[in-house]
């Protein structure tokens, strides 16, 4: 070896060593232990599928809502999905369908991730492998590597041979293709692998391998022609680094940093994508186009390299760089159609249920209003001392669910003595206090200042469970006292209640941005389900002098679409409109309803039951209407519920309970009790409990 060529050879060897080091770093990197964008299906009702997967890390997993378990199993079997979680809404054990077509690392990491998440939520998971050929991932990588190696060796052989040096014009790239034919035949011999058994995979795989071999050979030949052994070293370095995931059998979803996005645009990445898609029986248009582009770029690079070499009389030190600069515009133009190909779209986020626990307060089974009041007064339990609101719904298993607002509990109760909301579950002779993990509010606080105050609740029966939607008002603390707050707007919390089981929180979603403007309707102040529609009523003030009541408006949507604002429709006086601003007043604010009220139907008549003029009013009134959109006409006072500011006694927020101790022509009504001096409530939480009375409903 001459003294002149020794340094160049050392540089070339150093470049190859750096490439090998990069490969080793990639394969052994701890960052490759975290998955990226692994497609996972979630099987469940739409509102459940929309919320379940939010508990999974969105950077690791891309969740896809799947309608049926059979459909999910088919997509897992053909490799479209790496896995699918089939949520058993009647129990706490789910099934993870795990694709054998995914790489071993993805299967292991996905299994560990789902199990860990389910364990943290109090649930368990059964893993069931789906598909065949568990070693297919490795087989396809070896097939792609064989094709890449055949191309590299074919191109390099022509560079160092005398025959290649004598070629001119288009005969040069043609000779490269012919020289790599031997390597192509070797690679095609591997097509018999069981990984490519599906019908139709053979022809597409042959085309893929041909593009890989020819494109690789052309690029290597162009590099060697323009820069000699230095060009071959550069080609070897680039090829070694880009093929590292195939060498180490690292799934591209486990690649660190920006490797995941770039790998699919390389020859090795496109080769893997094409072979995998064809073996799964799916389309491989995009990866095949990428390989075609690289082949076209190789042809142009060979022509440019020989033209530059002819001008300069042989290979030059910067020949590869000059060739790349000349070819770059062609490559960008060729890749543009591939970039513009439509994507499959983003998956909808979904969330895993949060399991709750209960504590039972033993009581009797009240049959009269006095017995009910006595039961509420005597019920004792550390997790619930007293609260206001008291919205209820009857479940399909005949139990009743009650939601309360600001709740006082015994000192030392996990989660604090005061929470923004709580839930009671009435079941025969037991009142169960439903508590989330940690013992805090049943609708978790958004942050240290903002919590949720329930207003209305509705339930839709499904096979094996009830889907319960709770409308709430976002409230922010404004002072040192727990009862000092301001409203920020509405929200919706969704629960899943298995028959005979414990409610599970599926998710909470704020409706609209935070705003203290009380002229903006607070949707969900009342709600009622009829004829397959959920009617949500909104209340708002005018902030005019001497106007103490709230106006009433109505929107409707299908119950399962309550979290989808685009599905909401607002009554404009004549028809249902898409625009919330079109919602017309059904009851004006002057002498209007309370901020939270009840709207329900009985005997073909719709009632809006409320305390007229809210806190400062005295009269319990029922407005009547022939339908959910009105017109509502006020009736006579049904009862007097005055507050006594001198003594500090507050009576407010009467709510109707048509499903509790029902009696034709009447309705059970509760109203909240409170004190202006918070210390009285802290000393005696039972004074902060609702009272019940029965009223006769007016007829229009």
Topology:
Layout: H1 5-28, E1 38-43, H2 46-52, E2 61-66, H3 69-77, E3 83-86, E4 93-99, H4 104-120, E5 124-130, H5 136-160, H6 162-166, H7 171-179, H8 181-188, H9 201-242, H10 244-247, H11 259-263, H12 267-279, H13 285-312, H14 319-339, E6 354-355, E7 357-362, H15 369-378, E8 386-394, E9 400-408, E10 418-419, E11 422-427, E12 430-435, E13 450-462, E14 465-477, E15 485-498, E16 504-510, E17 522-530, E18 533-540, E19 551-557, E20 569-571, E21 576-577, E22 598-602, E23 605-611, E24 619-625, E25 633-640, E26 649-657, E27 666-675, H16 678-683, E28 691-696
Helix pairs in contact: 1-9, 5-7, 5-8, 5-9, 5-12, 8-9, 9-12, 9-13, 12-13, 13-14
């Amino acid at each position: 070896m001459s003294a002149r060529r020794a340094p160049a050879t050392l540089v070339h060897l150093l470049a190859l060593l750096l490439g090998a080091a990069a490969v080793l770093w990639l394969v052994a990197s701890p960052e490759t232990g975290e998955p990226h964008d692994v497609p996972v299906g979630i099987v469940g009702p739409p509102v459940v599928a929309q919320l379940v997967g939010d508990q999974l890390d969105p950077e690791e997993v891309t969740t896809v809502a799947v309608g049926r378990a059979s459909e999910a199993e088919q997509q897992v079997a053909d490799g479209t999905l790496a896995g699918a979680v089939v949520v058993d809404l009647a129990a706490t054990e789910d099934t993870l369908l795990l694709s054998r077509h995914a790489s071993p690392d993805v299967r292991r990491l996905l299994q560990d991730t789902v199990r860990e998440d389910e364990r943290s939520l109090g649930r368990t998971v059964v893993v069931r492998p789906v598909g065949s050929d568990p070693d297919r991932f490795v087989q396809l990588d070896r097939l792609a590597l064989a094709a890449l190696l055949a191309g590299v060796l074919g191109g390099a052989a022509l560079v160092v041979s005398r025959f290649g040096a004598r070629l001119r014009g288009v005969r040069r790239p043609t000779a490269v293709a012919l020289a790599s034919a031997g390597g192509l035949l070797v690679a095609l011999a591997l097509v018999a692998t069981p990984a490519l058994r599906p019908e139709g995979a053979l022809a597409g795989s042959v085309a893929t391998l041909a593009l890989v071999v020819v494109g690789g050979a052309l690029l290597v030949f162009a590099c060697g022609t323009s820069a000699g052994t230095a060009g071959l070293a550069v080609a070897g370095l680039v090829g070694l680094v880009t093929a590292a995931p195939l060498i180490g059998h690292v799934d591209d979803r486990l690649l660190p940093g920006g490797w995941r996005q770039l790998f699919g645009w390389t020859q090795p990445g496109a080769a893997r994508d094409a072979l995998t898609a064809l073996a799964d029986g799916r389309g491989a248009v995009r990866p095949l186009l990428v390989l075609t582009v690289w082949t076209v770029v190789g042809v142009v690079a060979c022509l440019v390299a020989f033209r530059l070499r002819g001008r300069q009389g042989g290979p030059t030190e910067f020949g590869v760089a000059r060739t790349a600069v000349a070819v770059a515009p062609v490559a960008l133009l060729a890749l543009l159609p591939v970039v513009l190909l439509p994507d499959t779209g983003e998956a909808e986020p979904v969330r895993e249920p949060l399991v709750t626990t209960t504590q039972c307060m033993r009581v009797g089974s009240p049959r009269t209003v006095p017995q009910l009041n006595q039961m509420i007064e005597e019920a004792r339990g550390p997790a619930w001392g007293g609260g206001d609101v008291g919205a209820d719904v009857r479940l399909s298993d005949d139990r009743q669910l009650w939601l309360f607002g600001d709740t006082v509990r015994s000192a030392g109760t996990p989660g604090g003595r005061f929470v923004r909301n709580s839930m009671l579950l009435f079941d025969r002779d037991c009142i169960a206090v439903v508590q989330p993990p940690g013992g805090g509010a049943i609708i978790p606080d958004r942050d240290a200042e903002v919590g949720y105050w329930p207003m209305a609740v509705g339930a839709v029966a499904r096979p094996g469970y009830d889907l319960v939607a709770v409308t709430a008002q976002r409230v922010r603390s404004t002072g040192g006292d727990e009862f000092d707050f301001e409203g920020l707007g509405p929200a919706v919390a969704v629960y899943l209640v298995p028959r005979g089981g414990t409610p599970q929180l599926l998710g909470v979603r704020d409706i609209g941005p935070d705003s203290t403007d009380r002229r903006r309707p607070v949707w969900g102040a009342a709600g009622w389900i009829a004829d397959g529609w959920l009617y949500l009523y909104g209340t708002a003030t005018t902030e005019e002098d001497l106007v103490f009541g709230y106006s009433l408006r109505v929107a409707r949507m299908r119950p399962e679409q309550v979290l989808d604002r685009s599905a909401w429709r607002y009554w404009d006086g004549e028809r249902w409109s898409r625009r919330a601003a079109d919602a017309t007043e059904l009851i004006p604010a002057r002498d209007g309803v309370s901020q939270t009220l009840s709207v329900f139907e009985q005997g073909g008549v719709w009632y809006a039951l409320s305390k007229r003029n809210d806190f400062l009013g005295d009269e319990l009134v029922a407005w009547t209407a022939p339908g959910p959109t009105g017109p509502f006409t006020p009736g006579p006072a049904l009862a007097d519920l005055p507050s006594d500011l001198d003594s500090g006694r507050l009576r407010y927020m009467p709510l109707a309970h048509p499903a509790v101790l029902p009696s034709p022509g009447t309705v059970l009504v509760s109203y909240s009790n409170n004190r202006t001096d918070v210390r009285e409530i802290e000393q005696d939480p039972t004074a902060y409990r609702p009272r019940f009375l029965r009223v006769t409903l007016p007829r229009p």
